[in-house]
Amino acid sequence: MTGKVNISELDCVDGHKIGIAELDNPASLNALTLDMLKQLKSSLEDWEKDDSIACVFLHGVGEKAFCAGGDVRTMYHMMQASSEKRKNGQDDDSAQNFLTEYFTVEYSCDYLIHTYSKPLIVWGEGIIMGGGIGLYIGASHRVTTPKSRMAMPEISIGLYPDVGGTWFLNKLPSGIGLFLGLTGAQINASDALDLRLTEHLLLPEHKQGVIEKLQGQLWNKADHFELVSELLSGFEEAALSQHPSSQLIPYFAQIQAACVAEDLSLVCTQIAAIDGIGRWLEQAKKNLEEGSPITACICFRQCTQYHLLSLEDCFRLELVLSVRSGLLGEFEEGVRARLIDKCGHPSWMYKRVEDVEQSVIDRLFSSLWDEKDHPLAKLGLPRK
Asked: What digits encode the pLDDT tens for the residues 357-376?
């Protein structure tokens, strides 16, 4: 997959500059290649050290998507080739090495955004899913537009809610994060506002106006974070009449009740029994019913046993889960069926969540590295 990040800087009236990063991979809805992640991370690091940079503006090419996720097609081809070699009795670490590098860079970039020392505005127009949420959710200033759609849809491809999902799903009201992870349900901009996954709902035609306003600020005379918040708030009233009708919030109490249980099988049964009709709820139920039982088991543990982890430890745990998921075969099969062959019917390792051997899930959560050798061991240390 080809793709790049267009990097530029815009001058402000007082001598400061705005760092602009544009995800440019429209053929794949701005999905993130390894090179794109490396490029973005490097630019963010440089801008953070540059005193002339007042803030950063991150967006995607086109109107369809900010970012639809990671480069799972390349991952699939690496996993598939490695699997074939192992079937033929050959030792092959190429998939493990690629997955380790990819997710290490991705999670390092996500963490950098969570802890960035300057205002970082993410313009989340259109699709914001999977790896796109990883770039979005930690930003200091998160913007959606009326047609934005957010989701963690990994249950459909046999992965799990990563890119910090262990952290941000557990910050949502009781049961809601688990529901979103188990069903891969898409939420619209109004629901995202109500759940505080986003902060500002603006019209897409105001993007250039926001950038021009940023250029016109006197950054030396104000707190940069407050200045950006006030500036974005000034555009909100124009979008009020275009807020979409809530999809999740009408079912809020039922979702919470369904997702509070000590047994995953019971949670799945209760989600299926949520009373209501309509495409949104039915699709959420279908995603869970047809999704990977292994993914459901991982997500359930994330939301019930790891809800107190620090942000750093969440990313360290997820690197283990992601690499092991790539080696297990479930993720490979999900991508094959949904995105490569497009048959739409993955052959999951288990038919139901009740059938999943807990020893398999235990192994997925067991680290591949000693603490000091973990590729993300330095997360949380002061940046130079």
From this structure: 999 999 999 999 999 999 99
pLDDT digits (tens, 9 = 90+) for 60-70: 999 999 999 99
Tell me the pairing of strands 120-124 and 65-67: unpaired
Which tokens belong to 346? Answer: 């993955």
Contact status, residue 76 vs residue 335, Cβ threshold 8 Å:
yes
The CA distance from 381 to 378, in Å, is 6
Residues present in the chain in total:
384
Contact status, residue 260 vs residue 174, Cβ threshold 8 Å: yes
Neighbours of 199 (CB within 10 A): 18
Q: Which two tokens stand for residue 166?
A: 């262990």
0.85 surpassed by pTM: yes
CA dihedral (48, 51, 54, 57) in degrees, to 10, reads -30
Q: Contact 180/188 with Cβ under 8 angstroms?
A: no
> Which one-letter DSSP state was computed for residue 370?
-
DSSP calls for 316-359: HHHHHHHHHHHHHSHHHHHHIIIIIS--S----S-SSGGG--HH
Percent of the chain whose pLDDT exceeds 90 = 93
Q: How far apart are CA 314 and CA 163, in angstroms?
A: 9
- Residue 99 near residue 322 (C-beta atoms within 8 A): yes
Q: Are 164 and 134 in contact (CB under 8 A)?
A: yes
Strand partners, 221: none
In sequence order, which residues have a C-beta less than 8 Å from that of residue 381 and are 6 or more positions away?
none
